[in-house]
Amino acid sequence: MAVYYATKGYVLLFSEAIADDLRGTGVTVTALCPGPTATGFPQVAGMSHSRLFNLLKPMRSADVARYGIRAMERGKRVAIPGMANKLLTQSIRVSPRRLVTTIVRKLQESR
User: Of 108, 67, 107, 99, which Cα lies nearest the Cα of 86?
Assistant: First the structure.
């Protein structure tokens, strides 16, 4: 999971940098950051019994896709669907890194 999350961080920062490079060209880049989503991912990743997918109610994939398309059409650089996901992403900015990694690890564990 460490590589998975590090890659997500890289893709987000890379997307924001490309979006800035393309500013004024008419081309936009949107990074969709949905949080837990009801797909086959938890089963394939062996996470179907994790707290992440059981404590939090995953969003429906169709709702996430619609949100992402609307954000892309508006030219938003980062699209985070769902109020809980938005609050979580903001809390990460002000929380100590060690606390964040501990909480994420706990969410990955089985109930």
Answer: 67
CA distance 3 to 74: 31
Q: Is the pLDDT of residue 9 over 80?
A: yes
Where are the domains positioned within the chain? 32-108
Q: What's this model's pTM, rounded to 2 decimal places?
A: 0.81
Between CA 53 and CA 38 the distance in angstroms is 9
